[in-house]
Amino acid sequence: MTAYSENETVSGWRPQRREAPLRLYLTNSEGDSSDLVGVRAAGLLLELNLVPITDWIDPDELNGSAAAVVEVDASTPASIKRFQKLAKITDRPLIAAAYDPPLSLVRSLLRDGASDVLPLPIDLADLETALQQINKAAGAAAAHEAAGPTDKSKVISVLKSAGGVGATSLVSQLAARFAVKESRRGREACLLDLDVQFGDAAFQLGLHPTLSVADLLEAGPRLDGSLIRATTARHSSGLNVIAAPRELMPVEGHSADDFIRIVDIAAHEFGTVFVELPTNWTNWSLSLLARSDLVLVIAELSVTSINRARRQIELLRSEGLGDLEYRIVINRFDKGQLRAIRLSDVSDALGYPITQTVTNDPATMRTASDRGVTIDEVKRKSAVGKDIDSLDAAIAAALGLER
Question: Would the CA dihedral through 131, 136, 140, 142 be positive or negative?
């Protein structure tokens, strides 16, 4: 087993350049590393170097190799710092190797620039797989760079009038249905949960990914399409989900540029991206909304919810964003509510027509969320499912997507 991260790639590395060896820097504290001497992996000749776990490794020597395997030890912080420093100063792919590495160490090393993390003693088959993946990712990165930006990418931002309007459940189900229909056309879709404090879209879809938005934010300049894909969890519907952080993080801890870069790369990779924004306004919310091709404003048919939606739209207008494509969605709709509030009055208050009402069916939606499945798996035909299909069709039409 390996813990592969496609993020670290080097377009200049080619396995067929056999004059550049794969250098292994190991302590040989256990096992017999001599079995690796003179062996080839992915066309590369293995060169074994036995060095103490904390001794410095010459960067010039690293740069003369095709790639390198560097041993680290979870109980020796200096060995981890050595790896971190090497990752910053070399352009060669680095593979970390450790005995029984804990998950926390694996995640840390991947974020610090490791192309992969292998368990010791090294298994040649694992090493072959890691090298093949690195080379494959290098080719994909080069193709991605050559392709440049595409006008086919679309960003749909989700704006909640307030917390508790059922926006996450609705958007999770909507994005899953959207992905199913996009796959029939050979296209992909992604749900990016940027509610960095309370987002649980992945959980509601029955997904429990190890990586999240936090890992993308921490990647800094190493962020690319390969890392975006490595961070996603794939739902049975075909939807690619990038989860919110597992732990609470400050909403103002990163700049707008950090989030926009994530959105842009995700849109390039997947075509259409649903972006769930936090309920509370941040220093990057407006920038992401300005980047959007479509904005879904989700509210309930209550005075409080509609009033908050109105205030948000007024803010957007005051910031010069009144010409964005808005779609007003009334969630948890019950016809009995029309006795107190008319939809026409809501449209007049918001300045936009109501795009869709979504039937209030708490039993079906709650069961789907609890089980982490789509509502069709709970109830094959339902009013809420029909409404979400109508909303999906309206979004596809607004984005000019052929179905």
Answer: positive
Per DSSP, the three-state class of 147 is helix
Tell me the two tokens of residue 127.
Answer: 């090493």
* Model pLDDT for residues 134-158, shown as the tens digit of each residue: 776 665 555 545 554 445 799 999 9
Domains and CATH numbers, the chain: 22-146 (3.40.50.2300), 154-399 (3.40.50.300)
DSSP string, 327-383: EEEEEEE-GGGGGT--HHHHHHHHTS-EEEEEE--HHHHHHHHHHTS-HHHH-SS-H
Q: Could you tell me which residues come within 8 angstroms of residue 1 by beta carbon, excluding any fewer than 6 positions away? A: 119, 126
What pLDDT digit, counting tens, does each position of 42-74 carry? 888 899 999 999 999 998 888 888 999 999 999
Give the chain's radius of gyration (CA, Å): 25
Q: Of 293, 275, 295, nearest to 150 (Cα)?
A: 293
Residues 353/350/294/356 CA torsion (nearest 10 deg): -40
Asked if 277 and 199 touch (Cβ cutoff 8 Å), the reply is no
Other CB atoms within 10 Å distance of the CB of residue 295: 23
Provide the token pair at 155. 């960003």
Q: What is the pLDDT of residues 326-373, one digit of tens each?
A: 999 999 999 999 988 999 999 999 999 999 999 999 999 999 999 989
**Can you tell me whether residue 175 is helix, strand or coil?**
helix
Burial status of residue 125 (CB atoms within 10 A of its CB: 0-12, 13-18, 19 or more): exposed
